[in-house]
Design a protein that fits this description.
Shape: globular
Helix content: 40-55%
Strand content: 15-25%
Bound molecules: uridine-5'-diphosphate-glucuronic acid
Strand order of the largest sheet: 3-2-1-4-5-6-11
Distance between the termini: 45 Å
Number of helices: 12
Largest sheet: 7 strands, parallel
Length: 355
């Protein structure tokens, strides 16, 4: 198969490309505006990389769509700090630009694998009823769960709304124009190459990178609003294994389906995540004399600015991936954290030695 991967240079894309290149079954054309995370794959005979901004692409993108059998769309701004600081850019890229890709797939009758987000589910019923989400576990199911967002003034939700609207448009194109789509909703993947350390690049990445940075430099690990909310973490290799099965689409089982990819067993509060990361670092990576950071609480307004609101709990229902694709994830929380931290610690120590 000829596969066009858009937004291939991000965390998920780079890990997916590495796996597909290793399998050697398909010819890949990968597009992005930054190829740093693809460094180990570029040059491989099954991969053509193009530095290409899809916001400026026009005819060139259409030509590429016609030349490929499958389009994998990973183009996104998926970092919560940006939903607060740049909501219009978040809408433009995550909806407007992605819509153009979907329209090209409709026009040229190409299958699309669209990356969405677990954020489309929004908040839990418990949070709306003012109950403790710990007492009301409510796994999110792809085809049944309602989606509950916060008010407009909390503009964090523009991302979830943009992604949800895109999903609804793909579904409508499937109904009316025969578009063959598969939507993937990732639930907090982590692993090598996730985001960046805030000490090395300006910006506000996701929580793992903040905590990793704190461990490497001995600065405080900051819990937003006490770190009471939950996330369920999935190791990127497990996630990529599921994505590869979706790409293969045996007997068309993924046609016009939505898949959660996640690990319900790996649910922790953010406070527990901080404590576990500190424990793993202390036991496995800490060198003599390295300080162990303190864990402190900050308000969400202080950390993100006005307009932030959090998803309180998101438990993936992964029965569909299990029954249709035979997929389950294999890494528990400790192993997810160990492997991801190992990557960053090794990189950091190499850099220190070279300095
Ligand atoms: C993000 C994206 O919005 C989703 O689209 C994406 O699917 C998801 O990551 C993912 O990785 O799959 P979120 O989990 O909210 O969602 O991203 P984080 O920035 O990692 O935040 C997780 C939690 O940690 C939040 O409660 C946040 O307030 C908290 N946090 C973040 C801290 O307590 N301290 C920090 O230093 C940073």
């Amino acid at each position: 198969m000829n596969i066009l991967l858009l937004g291939a240079g991000g965390f998920i894309g780079a890990n997916l490309v590495e796996r597909l290149v290793r399998d050697g079954q398909h010819h890949l054309t990968a597009l992005d505006i930054d190829s740093e995370k693809l460094a180990d794959s570029i040059g491989h005979k099954h991969l053509a990389y193009r530095d290409h901004d899809i916001r400026q692409s026009g005819h060139a993108l259409e030509q590429l769509v016609t030349e490929n059998d499958l389009i994998v769309d990973l183009v996104a701004l998926a970092n919560p700090a940006l939903y607060v600081t740049n909501p219009v850019d978040v809408f433009d890229l995550n909806f407007t630009e992605n819509l153009k890709i979907a329209e090209l797939c409709v026009k040229h009758e190409k299958r699309i694998v669209q990356f969405s987000t677990c954020e489309v589910y929004g908040k839990t019923v418990a949070s709306v009823l003012g109950k403790d989400p710990a007492e009301m576990p409510f796994p999110f199911n792809e085809d049944e769960s309602p989606m509950i967002m916060g008010p407009i003034k909390n503009h964090r939700w523009i991302y979830a709304c943009a992604k949800q609207l895109l999903e609804r448009v793909l579904h409508a194109y499937g109904l009316e124009r025969g578009l063959n789509y598969t939507i993937i909703r990732p639930f907090n993947f982590i692993g090598p190459r996730i985001d960046y350390l805030p000490s090395e690049k300006a910006g506000n990445p996701r929580v793992f990178s903040h905590f990793m940075n704190a461990l490497l430099y001995g600065t405080p690990m900051k819990l937003v609003d006490g770190g009471r909310n939950y996330r369920a973490y999935t190791y990127i290799d497990d996630a990529v294994d599921c994505i590869a099965r979706i790409i293969e689409n045996p007997n068309g089982v993924c046609d016009r389906q939505i898949f959660n990819i996640g690990t319900p067993e790996n649910e922790v509060t953010i406070k527990q995540l901080a404590e576990k990361m500190r424990e793993v670092f202390d036991e496995e990576f800490r060198q003599e004399g390295d300080p162990l950071p303190e864990i402190v609480s900050v308000s969400s307004e202080e950390f993100y600015g006005k307009g932030y609101e959090d998803c309180d709990r998101r438990i993936p229902d992964v029965n569909k991936a299990r029954t249709l694709l035979g997929w389950t994830s294999k890494h528990d929380v400790r192993s997810v954290l160990y492997h991801t931290m190992e990557y960053f610690v090794t990189k950091h120590r190499k850099k220190q030695q070279a300095a």
